[in-house]
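assembly run, all chains below
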Amino acid sequence: MLLEVRDLHVEFHTRDGVAKAVNGVNYSVDAGETLAVLGESGSGKSVTAQAVMGILDIPPGKISAGEILFQGQDLLKLKEEERRKVRGAKMAMIFQDALSSLNPVISVGDQLGEMFQVHKGMSRKDSKAKAIELMDRVRIPAAKERVGQYPHQFSGGMRQRIMIAMALALEPELIIADEPTTALDVTVQAQVMDLLAELQRELNMGLILITHDLGVVADVADKIAVMYAGRIVEQAPVHEIYKAPAHPYTRGLLDSIPRLDQKGQELYAIKGLPPNLLAIPPGCAFNPRCPMAQDVCRTDEPPLYDVTESPVPRASACHFWKECLHG
Amino acid sequence: MPEPEPFEPLESYGEEGRAIASTGAGGASDLATAEAETLEQRPSVDAAEEAAGGPEGAGPDKKARSLWSDAWHDLRRNPVFIISGLIILFLVVISIWPSLIASGDPLDCDLSKAQEGSQPGHPFGFNGQGCDVYTRTVYGARTSVSVGVLATLGVAILGSILGGLAGFFGGAWDGFLSRITDVFFAIPVVLGGLVLLSVVTSSTVWPVIGFMVLLGWPQISRIARGSVITAKQHDYVQAARALGASNSRMMLRHITPNAVAPVIVVATIALGTYISLEATLSYLGVGLKPPTVSWGIDISSASPYIRNAPHMLLWPAGALAITVLAFIMLGDAVRDALDPKLR
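ok done. output:
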């Protein structure tokens, strides 16, 4: 297994108390595999990714328990300097907003070349040649002429391609993409996602795709982990989850996708708000918003049940997964 | 197995916030961020909009415009900058080569001519000791400019290093440094100068410069801290970190160029105030001491005779006023150019 996150807990110590952002997350990604992590704002999906990358702000953040095994090695036990060498070289991250993720005062060629200077100790000249090669690879036209330009001179899609090029520069084994297409136009979204998927296949990388956009997920992901209030509430292969969700929250997410055959009807929305992480409701965290909630949901926290019915394993953290799956 | 249900994503649902991370920031640093916000530069939005004019941004032949080239572009067209720049250039030239425009010796005095007014060859007249006021005014520029420039350099370097490190690393060091700056802010400058400099006997400019650096660094340190905290929160710093940049690389390459503008602005404006502070301290008798030629000393020695020989005071005072004004105007122009929000 390329990456295995085991029972990860992350807390943020704030003035108002301890916000439990991640409460026992388990997931794994293999080489060449794509895991989509799905969830609302504040569900802990980005925080988990930041913990894996080791770019969590500590303090106020704190990893209170768990293991992050990367190629069998626990990253949390590494020294910061060793950890830094892993970042960029073996795992890299693509951020949501490429404009703000690129330094406005440094030309894109220099920023791309920096990867080779930092990790490979290349000279300025060699790294510039590498930068042009990378820009070609992510299909930026006229790479040679544009290598000296600044981020604001590129369009949104081109900037995201540059971010992808930066992340892929050293051919890492794992890529974490934190909502890589959210800031882009729908047409450009598809191009960027295709490019990412293609390069992933080519380099046989593991990809963790963090998103709240179910449309992006269906085409590229192998499996999906749905997060709610810092826990994984459902984990399943991508096709099964669309066919029959085993958790009311996943069902709510799927129902709130606008569809052409629903034109004129009111769009479904999950009622209520995501829970305050300073005071997660007792029992199942989703119970105040759940249409299927019973008394037991308000008192007992559901474990992650094994709900496998086909050869591929899947899991759901709902007391009534059977009703949900077959209802 | 049936195909997965089709669906059309029409738009993204809501915004992925980082609510948790932002609640973690403390009130104190929030304040500092707000402080820096007014001076803090934005990734040049106007420039981005300009560039977005053509498809895929500008053509390859168009010269790249960064914040700095934009600022320079603005400055060259700003009359305030041109006028103050010319005055400062002139001051710098005469402080390096005063003999270019003044042939006499500022210490060559003839008591028999004391307090006499303008004469051929001595356009500004003579002072109380019979020295040529014109020569002394020209030579005084050297002291004022060197005190101003050196004190500003010292303050800017010390303040931005200490403040920058505090902002970058945060934690206990930041808390400690912030309290120290509070202590220094509480010291009244003139009173502090009277106390500290009255025990110094050296007649060089160094004790005065040292005193200004000692009292001036907290101001820059605060600004540098605030702007580093703001720059640190930018996504590209996080992105650099995620791609394996070390602390020193992040600071030097990603944070410093994006945090240095407010420091430059405040330092340029402070330069003028340091020149007038030198004159103030010299006037009070604790700054520079004769035989150093300084406008402050000359103003001080001329002030008892203002009624019968006003020229002795007005020429050095006028030179001082123009110099301070020029530096403050320059600082203003630089601030306007570096802060896109004022455009």
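The CA atoms of residues 246 and 325 of chain A lie 5 Å apart.

The mean pLDDT of chain A is 85.

not gonna interpret more than that til we talk
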